[in-house]
Design brief:
N-terminal domain of TfIIb, 2 domains, three-stranded antiparallel sheet, 0% helix
């Protein structure tokens, strides 16, 4: 996307008999397109906070019999957290004892 340097409006591509050009719809600005205008930009992803508290949250938790969806091991650490409103049930989070895969009951 290209923007008008005078008022910031998104420029439109227009064509006359011989050339293509960028034209602003709100002011008389126009710029002929003489070369292909290709530019790629990718947004940087921000670091996501761990809502479970990171590795320290798993230090003193209990174990239970639960099958890991990643490695099928039959034992996992678990913790319960209230992440929705008070009238909703608590969410249970699991972490595999063998492969450390994390999942929750939905």
């Amino acid at each position: 996307m290209w923007f008008c340097p005078l008022d910031g409006t998104l420029l439109q591509i227009q064509t006359n008999a011989t050339t293509h050009y960028f034209a602003c719809t709100t002011c008389p600005y126009s710029q002929p397109i003489t070369t292909p205008q290709i530019q790629k930009s990718y947004p940087t992803r921000k670091k996501v906070d761990d809502i479970l508290g990171g590795e320290k949250a798993w230090e003193n938790v209990d174990r239970t019999m639960a099958v890991c969806p990643a490695c099928s091991f039959g034992e996992a650490y678990f913790m319960q957290m209230q992440i929705r409103s008070a009238d909703e049930p608590m969410s249970v989070f699991y972490k595999c004892v063998k492969c450390s895969h994390q999942w929750n009951d939905k």
